[in-house]
Design a protein that fits this description.
Helices cover 74% and strands 4% of the residues. By secondary structure, the protein is mainly alpha-helical.
């Protein structure tokens, strides 16, 4: 057993930094990444960089690029659709459970998150809008009282975050997303179990349709 560290392992911090760059779009799909470049950028040896890159490959964010080493994995239409099919089921289940156990304290937290989302829209900061959107859905998972829902979704959220930027980059879409969030909160507060589940599923399915359409166009234009 190795000693406990007071801060995250170095390879973990490198992993998180590269992952953030991929999810934010700073590192583009197809962009080559080398151990040497990352080691120089972070001012570290190649060993923790290698460990971080191996984990990113296992998670599907990096892929082999032949003699060029590795590169950022492309966004895949079919994978995006599959992710949202699973998420629709999880979000629906979470909303159903949350509506049956919603409390005034949860209602207060939900309204605060709604305000954060609205302010993010006004700021024009797309990344802030994305983070607020993710926090909203994670809140519903937590409000469900079933931690397995959040644990099941957790490995997939970073992939969805990459895709979400496509749908949350236009003003009209950002507004409609938060209008739908507000309607979901109303059903939770009213304890309308079937309606809460339906609204969450419909919301995810609508976003999936938009994302898949835009990804198809983006990939076609890049070909």
């Amino acid at each position: 057993m190795r000693p406990l560290l007071p801060e995250p392992d170095l390879s973990e911090r490198i992993h998180d930094s590269v992952l953030e760059a991929i999810c934010s779009g700073e590192l583009k799909a197809g962009e080559r990444i080398t151990q040497e470049d990352l080691a120089q950028k972070f001012g570290v040896s190649r060993q923790p960089v290698l460990q971080a890159m191996m984990l990113l490959r296992r998670e599907g964010f990096l892929i082999e690029a032949g003699r060029k080493g590795v590169c950022v994995a492309p966004l895949d239409v079919e994978k995006a659709r599959n992710l949202y099919v699973v998420r629709g089921a999880l979000d629906g289940a979470a909303a159903r459970l949350a509506a049956a156990r919603y409390t005034p304290d949860l209602a207060y937290q939900g309204r605060l998150l709604l305000d954060v989302g609205r302010r993010a829209i006004k700021s024009g900061n797309v990344q802030a809008v994305i983070e607020a959107d993710i926090d909203f859905h994670l809140f519903i998972y937590e409000a469900s009282g079933n931690p397995i829902i959040g644990e099941t979704a957790q490995p997939h959220w970073k992939h969805m975050r990459r895709v979400m930027a496509t749908a949350l980059s236009e003003d009209d879409m950002r507004v409609s997303v938060w209008d739908e969030h507000e309607e979901i909160l109303k059903t939770l507060e009213a304890g309308k179990v079937p309606e809460a589940e339906r609204l969450c599923r419909d919301h995810v399915e609508k976003m999936a349709d938009i994302l898949v359409g835009r990804l198809k166009v983006a990939l076609s234009n890049a070909a």
